[in-house]
Amino acid sequence: MRERDDTARLGAAEIGAALGERATLLQFSSAFCQPCRATRRTLTEVAGMVDGVAHVEIDAEDHLELVRQLQVLRTPTVLVLDADGAIVRRASGQPRKADVIAALGAAVRD
Q: What's the pTM value of the predicted model, to 2 decimals?
């Protein structure tokens, strides 16, 4: 996963859902993307393990302006947002559960 991007902050208005209290796993998907389904399962599971973490999935085709703004080039793309909506990590492709948990460590502040 790539490092922090302090230039972008996302909120409920941009992603269409409330941010997690501590962090948000933001997934860009497309309808016929097989790895997107597996990514959804992984992120849902991790969000359920960590209090205050939300998983939000966005259909890339329905949010082309946001896709362009964030330079999402493929699906799945996962952005890890901190409590303030700053992008802490980003990755393309199907992530491993251990990598998602490690990325959350950079986003979650106690």
A: 0.91
